Amino acid sequence: MDLFSYYGLFLAKTVTLVVAIVAVILVIAGVALRKRDAGGQLKLTDLKQRYSAMQDEMRVATLSKAQQKQWQKEQKKKQKREDRASKQQVKQGADNPDAKATTWVIDFKGSTDAHEVSALREEVSAVLAVASAADEVLLRLESPGGVVHGYGLAASQLQRLRDKGLSLTVAVDKVAASGGYMMACVADRIVAAPFSLIGSIGVVAQIPNFNRLLKNHDIDVELHTAGEYKRTLTMFGENTEQGREKFRHDLNDIHGLFKQFVHQMRPSLDIDAVATGEYWFGTQAQEKGLVDELGTSDDLIISKLNSHQVIGVRYAQRKRLMDRFTHSAALSAERLLLRFWQRGNKPLM
Questions:
Q1: CB–CB of 191/291 below 8 Å?
Q2: 178, 196, 200, 297: the active-site residue
Q3: Is 297 considered catalytic here?
Q4: Number of C-beta neighbours around residue 40 at 10 A
Q5: What does the DSSP assignment read for 149-189?
Q6: How far apart, in whole angstroms, are the C-alpha atoms of residue 266 and residue 53?
Q7: How distant is the alpha carbon of residue 305 from its chain centre?
Q8: Are 282 and 195 in contact (CB under 8 A)?
């Protein structure tokens, strides 16, 4: 009996020691990951190489086995010749006579809170750090719009490209509405797919009010502010007609700024005719002057493969350790509540 008692005590001590060691390792690893997770990583993709590889794969698929072997031999010889020529140019210190301008491709798939703008600013800064005057930028844009300050900043990031003299083309394959169109209109050229959704130049805000429900249950809500219009509408207090009028006045002011911005970017537009909050399909949008051409981003990229280097630019934010292991259950709930609050209290465009 004493033997089993000693063994049990020894086992308990061993398990405790192992658990303590593992806990220390996890804490150290967590601290290191948090430090590393503070930043992100810039990822560049040679889209020309990707399209060429796809093209070669399709060509090879149509050949017989004997023809495939012959084709592969020829490709190896061609690659060796190109490598030798490149090395010779490096040794001689000569500039590459075949050097081409670059088309930098950026993707922006925007959400309501426009949190993607943090990656966009990194991508724009990276392009501006190396781009020459002959380079151009293609933004593949997809967004139904969202908070005013977020999409205002996103449009300002694109304006940085224009200010540096880089040609900017925006391609809309699906939707660029409201704040999404605010971004698009910064471009020198807007290309939209025929059935993409364009426009919605307007501002909307809504807020639920539970005041009557609370009164029925004898619940009072006190709201104290300093400043006549610090809070115009509230979810739980009793709203006044004066507050509603100020809220509508603020929306009209934002709409006016939105219209002014679009007209400044595209002065040929009949701004009063298109700033009604309506949206149109790509073909209709072209007729109204909201877009310049019909087409897809794929066509634009393929058209540049012979004349330009085509490089995809993406800034990837590292995920936190908690996000990877718990799937962000708590964070998802928090973001859901945040979006609910934003939709109720902040104007969307």
A1: yes
A2: 178
A3: no
A4: 14
A5: HHHHHHHHHHHHHHHTT-EEEEEEEEEEETHHHHHHTTSSE
A6: 39
A7: 24
A8: yes
Q: Are 190 and 170 in contact (CB under 8 A)?
A: yes
- Answer whether 256's CB lies under 8 Å from 271's CB: no
Single-letter residue type at 111: S
Helices H, strands E: what count in the chain?
Answer: 13, 9
Catalytic residue among 35, 65, 91, 230: 230
Provide φ and ψ at 9, rounded to 5°: -65, -40
Which residue's entry shows tokens 């509508």? 248
Three-state DSSP class for 46?
A: strand
DSSP state of 267: T
Can you state the angle between helices 47-61 and 297-304, rounded to 10 degrees?
Answer: 90
Dihedral, CA atoms, 301, 281, 111, 154, nearest 10 degrees?
60
3-state secondary structure of 276: coil
DSSP state of 221: -
Q: What phi and psi, each to the nearest 5 degrees, are found at residue 313? A: -120, 125
- Identify which of 201, 204, 203, 205 has the alpha carbon closest to the alpha carbon of residue 273: 201
Please state the length of the chain.
Answer: 349
pTM: 0.77
Q: Measure the CA–CA gap between 12 and 173, rounded to whole angstroms.
A: 63
Q: Is 178 annotated as catalytic?
A: yes
Q: What is the mean pLDDT of each run of 10 residues along the chain (349 residues)?
A: 59 70 69 59 92 84 84 82 71 62 96 94 96 96 95 97 96 97 97 97 90 89 86 88 92 95 95 95 97 97 93 84 53 56 58
